[in-house]
Amino acid sequence: MAWQGTIVLERMDGPAAVRAGDAFRLIYAEVFAEPPYHETADGIAAAFRRFPAQAGRAGFRAALARSEDGEAVGMAYGWPLAPDTVWWDELAEPVPDAVRREDGHRTFGLMELAVRGPWRGRGVARRLHETLLDGVTAERALLNVHSDSAAASAAYRAWGYRRIGATRPPGTGAEVYDMMLLDLRPTTDDTRSPARPAAVTRGG
Fold this sequence. Notes:
Blueprint: E1 2-4, E2 7-12, H1 14-19, H2 21-32, H3 41-55, E3 61-67, E4 72-80, H4 97-100, E5 107-115, H5 124-133, E6 140-146, H6 150-158, E7 162-167, E8 177-183, E9 201-202
Helix pairs in contact: 2-3
């Protein structure tokens, strides 16, 4: 746990995230009820019926941000993509086998990253992202972001992500998302600079 101004950031493993499930659900429900997601009560309930199983996946990790008085303000979580992941199959245009190859360790899938409205624009999303990925040994991180979420897309680009293509993750109906990839390998010219906009992503 580390102080970030008036925000406390905590990285969690699966069991800790399940114990803090009410905080994750509060953030998820508030953020994803907003445009362009329009998540329903049934959708939120279904997401958090899945959450304990997701938290049990190998390599699962999460980050939770709280205000100084303990109020949950932002969250992020994900896990390494399995060799048989369907993420790459959901792209509208296929990518080369060298890009889509997975071995269970190569790619960290960033499933959710969200910050509640009153705390956006304060760098909380960037800090959540950094906290979540700190110590990850994967070569790269992969995420889906709603194509209509301009602020999130801008933040990810500023952090070094590049767009791979359009995709329709399961459960999102006809909505189009952008798949974005971040190289996590050290370079002499690290383009993963911090950005101010709050980010929201949806995993597959």
